Amino acid sequence: MRIFGHVGTYRPGDLFANRLELSLTGLHKPRRAGVSGSQAEGADSIVLAGAYEDDAFSEDEIIYSGSGGRDLQTGKQVTDQEMIGRNLALRRSQETGLPVRVFQRVAHEDGEKFRYEGLYRIISYQFARGKSGFQVLLFRLVPITT
Question: Pick from 117, 119, 105, 114: which is nearest to 21 by CA?
């Protein structure tokens, strides 16, 4: 069962050792994919891991690159992205307005960790030319203030 919103007692600022811990706690179930969700229900969580050059994180908003188009060995964008797969889950979340949990890989004194940034809402998306010259999907998320 997919949970939209906070899971258990975990709250923004909590740190996690790795993607496996995020998966085992049920916060972000995929161990590799940056988007947890389905086309029918939407995305319940995303991870900003520094893999996509067009991602941008600020206090007021997140610009999150859609998935696809990257060379798995070099990590570089090599083709245009398409509105398929996990990108459809992100679009569905924009349509439903359901909250998305956001995690970000951060530097920590004990090495890299994943920090829970909180709940966000996807308010828009667009195709745009990315830094590598290919068309990428850019999803705009804003924090949910309660």
Answer: 114
